[in-house]
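Blinded run. Sample ID left blank on purpose so nobody reads anything into the name before looking at the predicted structure. Input follows.
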Amino acid sequence: MSKKVLIISTSLRNNANSEILAHETERGAKDAGHDVEFVTLKDKTINFCKGCLACQKIGHCVINDDANAITEKMKEADVIVWATPVYYYEMAGQMKTMIDRANSLFATGHQFKEIYLIATAADGSQGVAQTVINGLNGWIACFSGVKLCGYVEGAGLEGANEAKDNKNLMEEAYNMGKNI
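Blinded prediction complete.
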């Protein structure tokens, strides 16, 4: 059964490892027959949530920037794949800001049930993505019936574009997309 998959790449760096792996996941999901849309936060204007909760009443954020269009795409997706670099053992701030700005989903509903994660870090320790997973699970817990279904951890990727040279990691990202 074909699913509507939204991949959100949150790295702002050119040749970002998390985005390279996200494109591999995209390729796998497309090869599996899914309808895939890829969104990058590069060149997007996404301001911080003001905490006014107006979105709960009117169904969208009162801040007029690119976050509203991305939130609408999130609302209509069956699957969301987040791709982020790991900064200080947590998701990148721009990912957290986008999550915060999607607060209107509580009032307007959502279609997604499956969440996936791609997290890349310069630190080579296994499990470096665990704190990102913990943060993402906090967001997931706010939605009934939604669960983290898989993740790819790219540890030890210090320089831009290094993921392309890691055949096993590229294959893992592709297979995650293929198995959505």
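Unblinding after everyone has recorded impressions. The chain has one domain: 4-178.
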